[in-house]
Write a structure and sequence with these properties.
Helix content is 31%, strand content 18%. It is α/β, with parallel strands linked by helices and 329 residues long. Iron/sulfur cluster binds next to loops.
Amino acid sequence: MIDPFGRSVSYLRVSVTDRCDFRCTYCMSEHMNFLPKKDLLTLEELERLCLAFIAKGVRKLRLTGGEPLVRKNIMQLVRTLGRSVHDGRLEELTLTTNGSQLARYAAELAECGVRRINVSMDTLDPDKFRAITRWGDLAKVMDGIDAARDAGIAVKINAVALKGFNEDEIPDMIRWAHGRRMDMTLIETMPMGEIEEDRTDRYLPLSLVQQRLEEQFTLKNIPYKTGGPARYFGIAETGGRLGLITPMTHNFCESCNRVRLTCTGTLYMCLGQNDAADLRSVMRQSDDDMVLAKAIDEAIARKPKGHDFIIDRTHNRPAVSRHMSVTGG
Ligand code: SAM
Ligand code: SF4
């Protein structure tokens, strides 16, 4: 699939649920209105859509959410998609998870062909972890990470850089992750969905974090790529890799290779724009996969050039009203 700007779209991110067992303060408000169950695609419908994308050339598929591992019977979908990994149609099946349920599912994920996962963790301090996730238990996440590694799954730690919350802890987190041979990626907070706090208070540009890190580490640009938007650096002192995802300070849209499917079958061609295609209606109107393939082609033909994210005192509204948990981070 080639979009109007000549970018090849080979990466599908699927938000399998908008629900979550955490309420991270930068992601969700405390009292969220989740989608009624009847609006959700069934697992069979999700499977049909994912397979249609794989048939159209998607080579990498990431399950996300909300929290993907809280969706009931999610392993049924993982198992089906895993077959595409085993027969070579899909290069990679992966997921982004908060890790809360990982201890339970790690072995089965590995068996289904999942080789790498991202675990989101914004602090190493259990009290701060409880505060930022509102409900999370760091010990459980740590157990989940261990279980994944024991099962042979490579873990990358994702942390959102938050001013006044974890900015002083970032070097220690890097040492901790790299000491366990895990890559680590830092993410800039993006203006998506209404939350209780003012995002301007928490926004920490990674250009500044990088400058500070360079006072104690030697960062070297490396050509490593995972198919996602991170730029990678090797850190001489730890021997590990650090990724920076900088939608705010360094726009990465020119190399965008991905589209995002929500749990209601809405396809967003850009994380930061509102245009979308309703694939659920198409799918429910016809069993013919050719019709679905045509609808996917039409959507890709509308993929926009990029997002318009800004966070400052004069732009203190979300760029898009939907939360990250709807589109899938
Ligand atoms: N629940 C899973 C998790 O936390 O990994 C998957 C979904 S979560 C929406 C995916 C990623 O998006 C997480 O790493 C999270 O920290 C990040 N995220 C959520 N809201 C964000 C925002 N407003 N700006 C930047 N990253 C955000
Ligand atoms: Fe849940 Fe992930 Fe959002 Fe945190 S970032 S509330 S874990 S979906």
